[in-house]
């Protein structure tokens, strides 16, 4: 898995060089503690659940996944927690709303009951606090 992530990072960095512009990338800090959307400033993700959900979305994207269901997002945001009825789905929607407000509005896509990061925007995962 680590070698796959390294390959994805190398591919994304190669794409960045081809583009010649860092303002066309989504850069995500280690552990999704921050991100820099294309053409925007660096934004800290201070709350645990949105940070874990962003991390899950980045991992899904790096692994070529089609996105995550709201149930999967709830499980990522609140690992090990049991939810009553639709409480987990509601929490996932609130966390996604927080990420949208922080600056990912145009990058979070919903399709076929799944949420994913826009596949047209290259992602670079920073190895350190960049």
Itemize the secondary structure elements and their pairings:
Layout: H1 2-19, E1 26-28, E2 34-36, E3 42-44, H2 48-62, H3 70-77, H4 87-104, E4 108-111, E5 114-117, E6 123-125
Helix pairs in contact: 2-3, 2-4, 3-4
Structure description:
With 130 residues, the chain is an alpha+beta fold. It contains 4 helices and 6 strands; from the N terminus they run H-E-E-E-H-H-H-E-E-E. It has helices spanning 2-19, 48-62, 70-77, 87-104; strands spanning 26-28, 34-36, 42-44, 108-111, 114-117, 123-125. A 4-stranded mixed β-sheet has the order 3-2-1-6. Strands 4-5 form a two-stranded antiparallel sheet. A hairpin with a 5-residue loop joins strand 1 (26-28) and strand 2 (34-36). Helix 2 crosses helix 3 (70-77), helix 2 packs across helix 4 and helix 3 (70-77) crosses helix 4 (87-104). The longest helix is centred in the first third of the chain and has 18 residues, at 2-19. The two termini are 22 Å apart.
* Annotation, overall tally of beta strands: 6
Structural class: alpha+beta
Low-confidence stretches: 16-20
Shape assignment: globular
State the distance separating the first and last CA atoms: 22 Å
Please state the CA-atom Rg, rounded to the nearest Å.
14 Å
Whole-number mean pLDDT: 87
What string gives the helices and strands in order? HEEEHHHEEE
User: Helical residue percent?
Assistant: 40-55%
What characterizes the major β-sheet? 4 strands, mixed
Sheet-strand content, in percent, reads 15-25%
Spatial order of strands in the largest sheet: 3-2-1-6
- Count up the helices: 4
């Amino acid at each position: 898995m680590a070698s796959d992530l390294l390959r994805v990072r190398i591919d994304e960095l190669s794409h960045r060089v081809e583009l010649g512009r860092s303002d066309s990338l989504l850069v995500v800090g280690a552990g999704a503690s921050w991100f820099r959307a294309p053409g925007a400033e660096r934004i800290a993700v201070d709350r645990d659940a949105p940070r874990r959900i962003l991390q899950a979305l980045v991992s899904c994207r790096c692994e070529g996944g089609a996105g995550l269901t709201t149930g999967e997002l709830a499980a990522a945001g609140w690992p090990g927690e049991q939810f009553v009825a639709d409480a987990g789905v509601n929490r996932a929607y609130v966390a996604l709303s927080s990420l949208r407000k922080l600056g990912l509005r145009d990058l979070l896509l919903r399709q076929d009951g799944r949420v994913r990061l826009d596949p047209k925007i290259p992602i670079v995962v920073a190895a350190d606090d960049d």
